[in-house]
Design brief:
alpha+beta, 7-stranded mixed sheet, 4-stranded antiparallel sheet, about 20% strand
Amino acid sequence: MKLIIAEKPSLAKNIANALGVKERKDGYIENSEYIVSWAFGHIFELYSIYNYLNDNEIKWKEIPLPFIPGKFLYKLKNDEGIKKQFKILKELINRNDVTEIINCGDADREGQLIIDNIIKEIGTTKAIKRLWLPEQTEETIRKEIRNLKNNENYRNLYNEGLSRTELDWLLGINLTVYLTVKSGQKLACGRVLIPIVKYIYDRDMEIKNFISKKYYQVEGILEKDNIKVTLTDERKEDTKEKANEIAKKLSGKVKIIEIEKKEITKQPSKLFSLSTLQSFLSKNNKIDFATSLKSIQSLYEQGYITYPRTNTEYLAENEKDKVKKIIETLKDYPLEFKDTKKIFDDSKIESHSAITITTKVPQDLKDNEKLIYEVVKNRFISNFLSEKTITEKTTVTIQSLKDENITFKLTGETVVQEGFYKYEPKDFKNELPQFIENEEFEVKFEAKEKKTSPSKKVTEEELSNYLKNPFKKELKDNDDEAYKAILEGVEIGTEATRTGIIENAKKYGYISQKKSTYSIEMLGEKLIEILDKLNINLYSERTVEFSKLLKKIYREEKSIDDILDLAKKELNNIINQNVEIEKINKTNNLDSLGTCPICGKNIYERKSKNGKIFYSCEGYKEGCTFTLWEDTKYFDNTLKITKVKAKNLIAGKKVAFKLISKNKKEYEGYLTLKINGKYINFEPAGYPEKSNKK
């Protein structure tokens, strides 16, 4: 009998269905050949400082820092369901008829760690194999169950996952306690969280300190075929008088002296990694990273797309037959197999290939899942489309007849053969008139006042690109060098963890998000200022140094002790410098969300003892009842009141929420706050233009 331990119940269900395992028991499914059981993700957690010291009452200022355990210890999470399932797993592993145990954690370092820790905690001398699933289709499960590897082959992956977990505990716990004690304000810290907050802080400080400068440029409008184009002189002048002189000299006739037309065969965008898929959805479909990740994971668990937490946009050489089968399922599309390095390249793959659809065709997907599946499918189609995609680029050179040394260039592009633009449309908004060489036009030039503009807010796409390769600018968009850097660990966080850490930064009140852009919050500013005052440099360069060491552990070039020793040295240098800073005045440094509509005092974001966020005013001590919870109910709807939404509601503005109608259909509607005596309620306030309820 073979025991398969899946990371989650959903994966166990898929495995059981694929292998025909149907007899359901309490906590597992079995037949005459297999037992399929499951964990609930991470069922073990590292000891807390309180556990190590055996003192739940110790105050943070009394904790000896740096706190470095002699040995890292794990404990089963305090959850009755987890405790029951662990007991079942223990009984199954020790069953006399079980001769082989199969680790089927997710196909990544976390999945390896989760199941290995369970087996290690229970202890066994039985053979342990690894079932590695790049996708959850029945066909792939049946194929890979015949292709099991020794679990020992994945020891380096386990070591990397283990060292990452222990490193992040060491840095996160020590720095959180240290900064909190020093500042008098709870400041959660982490190896990946700090560079995220710093990146957004730097951009917002750049915007805040930007001084706009006025300048003048000369422009003229040329019109033909009811199409207007702007001719812009490249010179920038600091006074309007100088620009007016140029405009006067240029006003008059201009001549078309050259028209160059060139056909261009366009190449499709690469297949998706997780971050490029999330960036695409954020930019084009306005789906934020946290929302898209849930739907992407669900599509994978249903077997419709391949393993999503990948950092590459290439497929492996050994996947060519699989791709041919996918192409066969897309018979309604003009596709052909393409054996090219632009798609298949083992040198650009760490452990997982790019995200693609599978041979399993969905029938009833809805909403975001349907949209995201189509996006992944269309990218696959674009890469294997038999029809070429051709555009015509036109470059027109225009000469001033008043000053023949001055020329203007206009470019336009039109589609000649649609190709993959049929599946991934692109707007070409630079249409040009049908010019004729030597044609002349009368153009009046004028001085236009302009201002230099600051950088824009950090977007989800921009932050994702930065974390994936923080030094990409230095690589000058060289794809080979960029992937070499990724494989060496030149990244901040991983595809699997970044979205969750960004959400934590929002939860801690360091940053906020409005649509697809991020802003630094007052507490985030304080965090970076305090880190600088305490000479704590865990920004991109230092964090990348740790990431590179983690990759070296995977390649057996370094040991777990090497990276933990570096972390210990770093902590000793930070804590032993004995720098004093001014305590944070909590009231003065809290970011007021507005004035209370009941008592008129300032409203602030707060956190309950069990960690739940709510918004209340300074008047609560005098009995004011204004309270607005981050997670709150409105009829059958669960609303998420973010800090930005709370500000707008408190200001009396209407705010859009996704709601569920009486007939269980999702729609978008506006709500406002309504004061009902001492209490607050929500009141409907109409629908956005695109709402399907309107």
